[in-house]
What we know:
Blueprint: H1 4-16, H2 19-26, H3 30-44, E1 49-52, E2 55-58, H4 60-84, E3 92-98, H5 100-117, E4 121-127, E5 141-146, E6 153-160, E7 163-167, E8 185-188, H6 196-204, E9 210-214, H7 217-225, E10 231-234, H8 235-240, E11 244-248, E12 257-263, H9 270-284, H10 287-290
Parallel strand pairs: 3-4, 3-5, 8-9
Antiparallel strand pairs: 1-2, 5-12, 6-12, 7-10, 7-11
Amino acid sequence: MLSWEDFRLVKALAEARSLAGAADSLGVNSSTVFRRLRTLESSLGAKLFDKRRGGYQLTPTGEEMAELAARMAEEVAGFERRAAGADLRPSGDLRVTTNDSFVSYVLTPVLAAFSQTYPDIRLEIIVGNQALNLSRRDADIAIRATEQPPETLIGRRLSGIAWAVYGRQSDTAVADIAALKDRRWVTPGPPLGGIEVVSLVRETVPAHNIVYTMNTIVGLAEAIHEGIGIGPLPCYIGARFGLKRIAECPPPKHPASLWILTHADIRGSARVRAFMDFVGNELTRRRHDFEGKTG
Length: 295
């Protein structure tokens, strides 16, 4: 008799293509994954994976089981979402994902006020710049800057997000970025490198003048504060670090906005509604900071 754990094993190994990656996903060690795979293949009397240079590759039988596992996982996640959306009072666990700069310099006081208002809701904050899958309930709510939210999610736009070039207080403000191309620069790296203003900097500033890259906005603000170079930042971060706004960025062709998002299946949950309303309203009151109209 196959169990759900057998299907989870095949799905995890098919996605990771390595024992270590599957082990991380399942919360076990690599030897356990290897042992369980061998036991499963023995009980089925069929090979599910071939070990090749590129990692574990599905056999035709493995492909069939992995496809079934993916459908089962989606059904389970859908049931969990619908069940979570059926609660009637604001209590229980709530997983919220956002990025490091936002939680450090904006969100924590708002979450403190929310927790005081709704003491029966337990918050789990997942910090990272990667987009988590709300359909799989990696998180229940996302607070993200995005050009266009996924069609599978619902929520509200809270504000625009303005960027500018920042330096230390001793730096001189100029008319545009081109006037600063001979300065030493710091810029965001992957996965933030796709931001439109970062592309503009890289097109304008000679590569040898970009002396520092980092994959967190907070780290870049600290680098500018310490004098490593000048660089682009969201205005609300530049202001919080006491940095000087020395050049404006041209309006982006595809502007990002700040959104609070959840999955349609759980929007009726009392704790989700409470969070979306309370935190959404509090952040909307701060929109002048996000849009660079203060500081």
